[in-house]
């Protein structure tokens, strides 16, 4: 079984399904073509095991990330890109969004653990205060 993502007219994922194996054909057509024609919506195969440009089981990564609803398929990268969390964040070489400032190294340390959140106004990480 393989997974397939359906795209709207802006290449945004609207649905992900489990379909036939990518090596099989339907009526003599590869699955992407057949699903696209059947649904009248662009269809792209996606790999459940690909995250951040890496195959989590050590295989060959496929299309950057496993597609999710709201992800964008970028034809120039042949990759699924998650929604950009903040305008200041940039896409890295692993097809993931990255803050312009690294998260502080003490994040998650201490008792209780030190937590941070992104502040877009200052484009920096701020400590989440206990309430």
For the biggest sheet, the summary is: 3 strands, antiparallel
Count all strands and give the number.
Answer: 11
The whole-number mean of residue pLDDT values reads 95
Order of helices and strands: EEHEEEEEEEEE
* Strand neighbour order, sheet with most strands: 2-1-3
Main features:
131 residues, mainly beta, two-stranded antiparallel ribbon, 1 helix, 11 strands, 7% helix, 30% strand
Describe the structure.
This protein has one helix spanning 31-39; strands at residues 2-7, 13-19, 43-46, 50-51, 54-55, 72-74, 79-81, 90-91, 97-98, 116-119, 124-127. By secondary structure, the protein is mostly beta strands. It starts with a strand and ends with a strand. The chain is elongated, with a radius of gyration of 19 Å. A three-stranded antiparallel β-sheet has the order 2-1-3, with helices on one face. It has a two-stranded antiparallel sheet with strand order 4-5. The protein has a two-stranded antiparallel ribbon with strand order 6-7. The chain is 7% helix and 30% strand.
Layout of helices and strands:
Elements: E1 2-7, E2 13-19, H1 31-39, E3 43-46, E4 50-51, E5 54-55, E6 72-74, E7 79-81, E8 90-91, E9 97-98, E10 116-119, E11 124-127
Antiparallel strand pairs: 1-2, 1-3, 4-5, 6-7, 8-9, 10-11
